[in-house]
Design a protein that fits this description.
- This protein is mainly alpha-helical and 77 residues long.
- Helix content is 53%, strand content 0%.
- The protein has one domain.
- The model has no long low-confidence stretch (mean pLDDT 87).
Length: 77
């Protein structure tokens, strides 16, 4: 059990922790310091918070999708 000073509400503490995790993950990713495990943590963090992205022509998810092979065009002889 974590004891918290009475002046700090539990919700405020959890919100601050959530923000700190998000900021640290963001910094490590944008600085190029994130390991594969940390990238996985970031993906789970986004998923757990119901954050998703729709691929478009002008976003990184769209660029990732454009770089994927199209197996529907793959025909045998």
């Amino acid at each position: 059990m974590i004891l918290v000073d009475n002046s700090v509400k539990r919700e405020d503490l959890l919100a601050a922790l959530h923000t700190a995790v998000a900021e640290d993950l963001h910094r490590r990713i944008t600085d190029g310091e994130a390991s594969a495990a940390e990238l996985s943590v970031a993906v789970k963090f986004l998923k757990d918070n119901h954050i998703d992205s729709v691929p478009t022509d002008d976003n990184a998810i769209g660029a990732l999708l454009d770089g994927m092979p199209n197996f529907e065009d793959d025909t045998d002889g």
